Amino acid sequence: MVASEPSDSLSYRDAGVDIAAAEAALDASKAAIRRSHGPRVLADVGSFGGLYSAKGLGDDPVLVASADGVGTKIRVASAVQRFDTIGRCLIQHCINDVLVQGAEPLFFLDYIGVGKLDPTMVATAIKGVADACTDHNMALLGGETAEMPGVYPDDEFDLVGTLIGVVEREHVIDGSRVRAGDKLIGMPSIGLHTNGYSLARRIVEDRMNLAYTDPFPGDEEGRSVADVLLQAHQCYLEALRPLLKDPALHAMAHITGGGVPGNLPRVLHGYGAKVSRAAVPEQNVFAQLCAAGDVERDESWQAFNMGVGMILVVAPEATERVESILAESDYPGFLMGEIGDMDSGFHYLD
Amino acid sequence: MVASEPSDSLSYRDAGVDIAAAEAALDASKAAIRRSHGPRVLADVGSFGGLYSAKGLGDDPVLVASADGVGTKIRVASAVQRFDTIGRCLIQHCINDVLVQGAEPLFFLDYIGVGKLDPTMVATAIKGVADACTDHNMALLGGETAEMPGVYPDDEFDLVGTLIGVVEREHVIDGSRVRAGDKLIGMPSIGLHTNGYSLARRIVEDRMNLAYTDPFPGDEEGRSVADVLLQAHQCYLEALRPLLKDPALHAMAHITGGGVPGNLPRVLHGYGAKVSRAAVPEQNVFAQLCAAGDVERDESWQAFNMGVGMILVVAPEATERVESILAESDYPGFLMGEIGDMDSGFHYLD
Q1: What residues pair up with B269 in beta bridges, in sequence order?
Q2: A139, A171, A203 - which closes a domain
Q3: Which pLDDT does position B7 carry in this prediction?
């Protein structure tokens, strides 16, 4: 064979997998990952498994684990090539998921699946995850980036992960204290968090006929569609920390996929709920999307958080005290209903 | 508006997300998930975070965590609509990843991303994950299924997850005992495990011109291409358990993406390695793929495991003892080289 002839030899790279690109992405994010590592992390980046010392985590520690992704919010990030904030959304989403059972976060592992691996994009996304971990005093303990031609279209990717937190067993919040007559206190979301993006994108693209760089209708700050839709998933850990060991806090529901009716009943052990939608402060983003999409009211409350990111179930006599504690935080609470009798189901009051 | 007129109202389902389908998939797999739950699991399926009691896990316990997927092996599963075995591949892959640091598995969380959610397919995949967890005495503690139209094509999906294991700190295997002159003992893979599928599929489809239901060339058992390629990722936990606290076991490398040269150096703390390829028993699947794809030899050892699933780094005087212990297992070891001097690099002997 003459050297200049094209070779028939197939390589891994010919098949769409560039191992060097994955290594470059990891190298570019290593410093940010290491910054998230505290004294409990016993191995450097790149070991087969991340090592986390669990010595002295508590007298009777319970690990609380949650796996999640950011859904099709990632397509908005792809559309405007902005990959630095979705990691924070993922981390803060997962923190809330373990927080509702009383846990503080310990560490996180991420996974990025991608059609064609762009080292800069992947490094930016991983750095976003690592920085959010650092900000919340947790370690980015491990992760995996997989280039999977065909499973993902070339310009699409998925970012998911698993968070491990810990709570002392006597302080696990599991809803077993919930009783009829308990009050529901909502905490405000800021925008869509990570839910309802398939519907929101459909409305933006097909009904509003907007580009992601266009101004979002009615936005008082004059932000673009992308800015409004990529607003970070809010984290309620700091606001709720003073309440986590409070016996008057009977349960919490993180409002994610399925909205209020899909999430609140998950923590009520069969008790009913009576929810006032009018009590939740209206946000322009939901009003605009629902009007443009002609989304039915009940449907909108299943697809979107509609302005409430977390609901606390509180002993009636503690309502004012809890509200005054939340008033000190970035997420002032609002009374939005109460717990109904056992087996009375989920109902809207308005 | 007359009732029979088509509505302009957009729903979440119109946008490609069917919440009921996701719930149906979870319902259909709940029994299998619950079977994996031992006494340390403190919450039922469906809680925001999975609860796992960490009381008494050890005097100085170290959690070992690994996140991974099954790569484009999933496209072979999709091609033949066989979703029951990929969960086992994922679990056994992740067990090996924490095993190399001396850890036993505790629990797992899975994530399935899918373009269009088929409840039967997703339930079958989750049940496969749960059954594998049960078989290895670990809990499927949580998970997430996300329907993401556009991120994934309708008929594609990704299955990934995170495993948490535990090892007593004094028994962490971290490669710090590795010395020049240590022996390398390989343990046989069975087929591709979960690596090299993008290249393998390209060869099968474009060079061999085979359908996945065709017989695989040269297979002594007359199996189909799909049967050969979907062979489960082998798990070395049972075989290696008698050696985990043995001070003569200096390091282990799980041979995954990047092959022997991409994985063995990860655990050697800068020591070199001299590897005999001829010492690794040949397997028909690699011989056929490499011949049909005209894959260069070095390239094939990076893309595929080439017959070795795990490499042990062993004190020279313990070689025979380790080999005799492995001879009792399903994965008899073979001597395949030795550790070189510090900074001497990775070399093939043949």
Answers
A1: none
A2: A171
A3: 64
Of B274, B228, B80, B104, residue with least CA distance to B173: B104
Q: What is the pTM of this model?
A: 0.94
Cα separation, B77 vs B230, in Å, equals 7
The domain that holds A284 is classified in CATH as 3.90.650.10
> Are the beta carbons of A163 and A141 closer than 8 angstroms?
no
State the 10-residue block means of pLDDT for chain A, 350 residues long: 57 82 84 95 86 96 96 91 93 97 97 90 94 97 89 88 97 95 98 95 96 97 97 97 97 96 95 98 98 96 97 98 97 98 98
The torsion angles phi and psi of B284, rounded to 5 degrees, stand at: -55, -40
Give residue for tokens 């609002």.
A334
Hey, are the CB atoms on A17 and B198 less than 8 Å from each other?
A: yes
Q: Which residues of chain B have pLDDT under 70?
A: 1-7
* Chain-chain contact of B207 with A10 (C-beta, under 8 angstroms): yes
Number of domains in chain A: 2
B65 neighbors A107 (Cβ within 8 angstroms): yes
Same domain for A161 and A261? Answer: no
For B258, which of A19, A43, A144 is closest by C-beta distance? Answer: A19
8 Å CB contact of B293 and A9: yes
Q: What is the dihedral of CA A193, A196, A199, A201, to 10 degrees?
A: 20
My answer on whether B73 and B204 are in the same domain is no
User: Inter-chain contact A63–B51, Cβ cutoff 8 Å?
Assistant: yes
Q: In a mutagenesis test of the A interface, which of B7, B14, B116, B148 is the best target, namely the one with the most A β-carbons within 10 Å? A: B148
Of residues A52, A64, A144, nearest to B62 (C-beta):
A52
Range of the domain at A202: 183-348
Rounded alpha-carbon distances, angstroms, from residue A223 to A82, A213, A227, A231, B158:
15, 9, 6, 10, 34
pLDDT at A238: 97
Q: How many CB atoms lie within 10 A of CB A40?
A: 18
For residue A281, what pLDDT is reported? 97
A53/B64 Cβ within 8 A: no
- Measure A265 CA to nearest chain B CA, in Å: 11
Query: Cβ A101–B49 below 8 Å, yes or no?
Result: yes
- The size of the A-B interface in CB pairs under 8 A is 298
Predicted local confidence at residue B44, as pLDDT: 83
Question: What phi-psi label fits residue A44: left (phi over 0), alpha (psi between -120 and 50 degrees) or beta?
Answer: beta
Q: How close is the nearest chain A Cα to the Cα of B324, in Å? A: 26
- For residue A258, give Cα distances in angstroms to A140, A204, A229, A254: 28, 20, 18, 11
Return the bridge partners of B342, or none.
B271
Q: Which of B108, B60, B100 is CA-nearest to residue A53? A: B60
**B319 membership: H or E segment, kind and range:** helix B319-327
Q: In this complex, which of B16, B111, B162 lies closest to A69 when CB atoms are compared?
A: B111
Written as one string, the DSSP assignment of A197-254 is HHHHHHIIIIIS---TTSBPTT-TT--BHHHHHT-PPP--HHHHGGGTT-TTEEEEEE
pLDDT at A135: 97
Report CB contact under 8 Å: A144, B254.
no
Tell me the chain A residues in contact with residue B14 when contact means C-beta distances shorter than 8 Å.
Answer: 199, 202
- Read off the tokens for B148: 């993401």
CA distance, residue B198 to nearest chain A CA (Å): 6
Q: What is the CATH number of the domain that holds A104?
A: 3.30.1330.10
A12/B199 Cβ within 8 A: yes
CB contact under 8 A, A109 and B65: yes
Nearest to B54 among A7, A61, A146 (CB): A61
